[in-house]
Design brief:
Blueprint: H1 7-24, H2 28-34, H3 40-47, H4 66-76, H5 82-102, H6 105-117, E1 122-125, E2 141-145, E3 148-159, E4 166-172, E5 182-188, E6 194-199, E7 210-221, H7 232-268, E8 270-271, E9 274-275, H8 280-308, H9 314-339, H10 350-357, H11 367-377
Parallel strand pairs: 1-4
Antiparallel strand pairs: 2-3, 3-7, 4-5, 6-7, 8-9
């Protein structure tokens, strides 16, 4: 049981684990080998209400808060398929949540209930070729034409990009207006001019799709502006903050899974006439893994509590993401070491945990970007 949640959260966590054990985990190996998990996963999760945690009840959500969503992310992060986990969470607690907060009635009526049911899948298109974490360098353009906007540009590293039914696209409508020159648009992927140009092959996250996209004279009407014109940068900052905590909590769940697997193996494996858990060097590794997880819990939930209290927490989110995601890789690496030669094979999940968790200090803003965010919050760098 997790120590940072209330009784109702603990019951929720147990229900998640039961569902994952019966409906998802038995298929993970197959989906990892295939390099794809079926859209049916979204539908199954939607039937259980897991996709609507942060969505309003009017659209089939449960109207939960960030604490409930955090419990979901942390527990779902224990699944040994981070690509699947993040693909689902980008859709549900990031994209659909943003649409529920900022979307027009027309776009919410069009997409939100289907998103909660897992019948329509969403993605968020920030990054571009040549401008990964550097959002200020985005070149995708939005031009007003009467009551419609015409979008042109290219996006890359888009989780769910190849399977999405709707995508939130960040573009610039005014290159001279600074941060106020950005807007976000809800794009139906069946719109003429939208194209998936490439599905990326990756080191990890094998079961998820990550795509490059192009938009060529994609026409959307005014109701497809997320919020109001000029709010795109502000929305991106808020959404990225929460996305970073989602990735942090997912990494924390993965680190816990690595520790559990390593403890079980160390208690069963014999070497030199005794269980390897009795070997001091192994004990030190296990102790170090546990220390980093406890530290990660403290950092993550401190940031979460600040957000729930409505306090400024940009620096705390950045510190948590940088430290927890880096530590999760260290934990996965020690899990491989404890398993010895077997840890380097696909017979045990350690090697996949290492490959999957390796992306966490990159996605949602690199560790180096997180360090700069902290410096800015301290007034040591320009805003």
């Amino acid at each position: 049981m997790y120590s940072n949640y209330y009784a109702e959260h603990q019951l929720f966590i147990e229900s998640i684990r039961r569902f994952l054990a019966s409906e998802i985990e038995p298929h993970v190996e197959e989906w990892e080998r295939a390099g794809h998990f079926p859209d049916e996963v979204f539908s199954k999760l939607g039937e259980q209400g897991f996709l609507g945690i942060l969505l309003p009840e009017d659209y089939g959500g449960t109207g939960g808060d960030y604490k409930m969503a955090a419990a979901w992310c942390e527990t779902f992060g224990e699944l040994p398929s981070v690509g699947l986990t993040v693909g689902v969470n980008m859709h549900s607690v990031v994209v659909a949540h943003a649409l529920g907060k900022y979307g027009s009635k027309a776009t919410k009526d069009r997409w939100l209930a289907q998103a909660a049911q897992g019948k329509a899948i969403g993605a968020y298109a920030f990054s571009e070729p040549g401008a990964g974490s550097d959002l200020a360098n985005l070149r995708s353009k939005a031009q007003l034409d009467g009551k419609h906007w015409i979008l042109n540009g290219a996006k890359t590293f888009i989780t769910n990009g190849a399977r999405a039914d709707f995508i939130l696209v960040l573009a610039r409508h005014d290159f001279s207006a600074g941060y106020k020159g950005f807007s976000t648009f809800v794009v139906d992927t069946s719109t003429p001019g939208f194209k998936v140009t490439k599905k990326l092959d990756k080191l990890g996250w094998r079961a998820s799709d990550t795509a490059e996209l192009s938009l060529e004279d994609v026409r959307v009407d005014e109701s497809c502006v997320l919020g109001t014109v000029g709010e795109g940068w502000k929305q991106a900052a808020v959404n990225l903050n929460w996305e970073r905590l989602m990735l942090t909590l997912t990494s924390l769940g993965g680190a816990r899974a690595c520790l559990r697997t390593s403890l079980r193996y160390a208690r069963e494996r014999e070497a030199f006439g005794k269980k390897i858990i009795e070997i001091p060097a192994v004990q030190r590794m296990l102790q170090g893994m546990y220390h980093r997880i406890v530290k990660g819990e403290a950092l993550s939930h401190h940031a979460l509590d600040l957000m729930l209290a409505g306090k400024r927490c940009r620096a705390e989110f950045s510190v948590a993401k940088r430290i927890v995601c880096d530590d999760a890789i260290w934990v996965a690496d020690k899990a491989i070491q404890i398993h010895g030669g077997y840890g380097y094979t696909t017979e045990f999940p350690c090697e996949r945990w290492w490959r999957d968790l390796r992306l966490m200090p990159i996605g949602g803003g690199t560790s180096e970007i997180m360090a700069n965010v902290v410096l800015k919050e301290l007034g040591l760098l320009g805003s």
